[in-house]
Structures are given as structure tokens and as C-alpha cells.
């Protein structure tokens, strides 16, 4: 018998909705706590910049039990993704579990001695209450708290009429019209904002980044959808993974020349297609050494605009503001009216007590999470959506299915605390020593090992079918409908 739990899901974005639907589907009572005024997380309209769209195709950016509408384009827009999430929440009754404008201000182990946590919840008007939960699913994800950057002289820059804002606040493109816009960052959001500023009539547009990075166009060579290169099992197997055997290492050494030729060919194709030499934006790093969740999609129009001077690229970072100019770390001075900080988000769980945060995060920022979902020293607590990837929604969906079974003791491979600790140490060694590129985002990046990660989750869950065979299994991207069928082969149960 599985006793029904009262579960708190923190966050009503992609991951929170997946967790709420999965836990409620197993018979648990769920409360979703969301500090914003609406669901959707990064896709909430108030947090989206103009012309934002997914980096992943719609058949990958979806839940296993709900496809995106046929009428959507292959890469849906921000409003379309938000509408999909809102419809998903309504269809499964998740909207009735929502407490909006409610922030988790703190949490502590329950004082009554029962398993679970007491959460301090603060409403929009500042009133705090305390509520007990049997289990907590943290679903705040990778894009929760915008990073800040404060440089000397910014008060003077603001006083003379300059504006400084995070890219998530670039909601009105009219602020760029007739003005000098400087964008800091090398992510897709940075290039998206720079291109939008040009289209919106900015007088000058400058993008500032530390160094050129490899960007992948939606269609490589203008013909091949990038999902058929970066998302397939055959390409993934070119990267040595964790826990590899001696025979596996030997196989990689034998195949090394062919793998090397594969990557050099891709680099040559990207240099030619994107005209990286003409733009003076050829990366120094080999493409295979940096494949992880931070590899951005090339914003359409970005490289042509750099090539013809509509966007000026500067390498470095902000050093200080001086009047109506920004001085870069290399000494270059750029006139500016608007500074857009496309510098990402802070990763963290600020409401978790410090003693528990130390168990969760090492001194170098690496997270101690088994399967990127649970920590044996943090009982009745799990994380959904921290397993960042190119397939965000599918990752959250599978993580939620794993977590509910872990919480109920129903995994086919239910790990002991020591097994979890040993695996965590092995994975941390892999990320720190064998493949440092895997250490981005606190070591919570799945890419390029999507299939390896999914295989482990499905085996733990107990699915008798776990992956596709034949050519489809090796040369097709992950399929949400296929994973729905795999999940259906796992043992069924319901709390009662």
C-alpha cells in the first residue's frame, strides 16, 4: 500500500506542470506554488522578449502525453508555447492546484517528527504562513533568477538617461528605435535581442561577448535539420561517456580518426555557411570539446548583420560606464543609450536551509544529484527540470516519472543511499576530469548524452521497452510518443 502524500511542487513552468501531473496521476494531493502571477515559467508573457521561439523542434519540446498543435510551426513562438502549457494545465486540472503570487521564503524539516518539510509561504501582500508537506518537488529549473552585473559608473549612466535591463525585461522593442543598443552576452537570447534591435530601428547595435562560440543553424548546409545531427544516438556515441569499460575506451581510440574527421567536416561546413571568417567569429575551441547545453542556435540574420556592419561585435566584457559610453575590458569605448544584459540566470535553491544547501552543492558549484533528480541526504525532496538539455520538456517529463516512483519506493532499481552517493562521486569525477564541458550549469547538463540519460531513467523505472532498435534507434531524434509507450510498459500502481 502506498500512502497518498501531500506534495508541494515549487514552480509552475514546464517542469512544475510535469511534476504536478505525474504526482497527481499517482493519487497524491498536489499544491503548485508559483511566485509569478501566471504559469509558464520562462514562457510567461511578462518574461519573454520579442520574437522568442524554441531552440528545439516542436516534436521534441513537448510532453509524452500531449503533442503540440499541428498548426504550430516546427519551432513554436513564445506565445504558442505558453498557450500549449496553459492548455496542458487546464486539460489535466493542474490549474486548480495553483497558488499564484506565492513565494517560498524558507523551508525546514517538520517539527512534528513526521517525514517531510514545513514551507514558509509568502503572499504578494507580504503575509507569511507555514504549511506542512510530505514531499517537495523543486521545479524552479535553470532559468529562475536573472543574473545581475553592476559596473563602476552605472549610476551616472542611468542619471544621464541611459537604461540597463536584463534580456528577460526586453519586452518592448520600441525602446530600441533610434537609440544605441549594446547587448552583453553570447547566448541565443543575446543574438535574438541584437537582431530584433536592428529590425526595430536602432541607431547602432553592438554585441559584446567574451569570445566567439560555435552556433548551430536550424538547417545545417541549408538542408539538414540540426536535430538529425545533434539529437541522434549515433552522434552521441562519438562522445566517451561515464563509467566506460576498457573495451569501450579501446573502441573510441580505434574510431578516433573517423570521429575527428566528422567534427572537422562539420566545422568547415559551419564556417562556410555562416561566413564566420568574414565576420571574424571563428571559435578557437574545437566544436566537440564544447558541445553541451550552452551551445546556441544561430539566430536567423545574425551573421549577415555582423558581416555587413549592422551589428558590431566586440570581444570582452563590460569594465565600467563613462557618461553615455560603456568601456570594455579591452579598453574599447562604445556609445550606448540602452544596455541589455543577456547574461543568463543564477542557479540555486535560496529557500533551502544552508546546512542542506551544503549537502546539495559542492564548493565549485557542482550539484550532488543522483540521476540529476535526487540527493540521498535530502529526504522527501526531489528536483524536476534540473536535468537541462536540448529536450527540456521531455527531460522534465521523464524526471517527474522517475521522481514519483522514487518517492513512493516503486523504482524497479530503487537505489540505496550509498549507491546514490557512489554514483554521484563517479559522475562528479567524470564532469570535473574526463569531460569538463559537462560541468556547465552546475553539472546539470544532459547534452550531448540525451539517450544515455533517458536509458538510465527508463531502466530505473522498470520499463520493459526502453529504446528503439534498428536504424530508427540510431539515427532518429528522441520521440516523445515512443517514450509514452515505453513508460506504459513499466509496472503500474496508485497511492491509496
From TrEMBL:
SUPFAM superfamilies: FAD/NAD(P)-binding domain. Its EC number is 1.14.13.148. It is an enzyme of class 1 (oxidoreductase). Keywords: FAD, Flavoprotein, Monooxygenase, NADP, Oxidoreductase. One of its GO terms (molecular function) is trimethylamine monooxygenase activity. The keyword Isomerase does not apply. It holds the Pfam family FMO-like. Belongs to the FMO family. This is Trimethylamine monooxygenase. It comes from Bradyrhizobium nanningense.
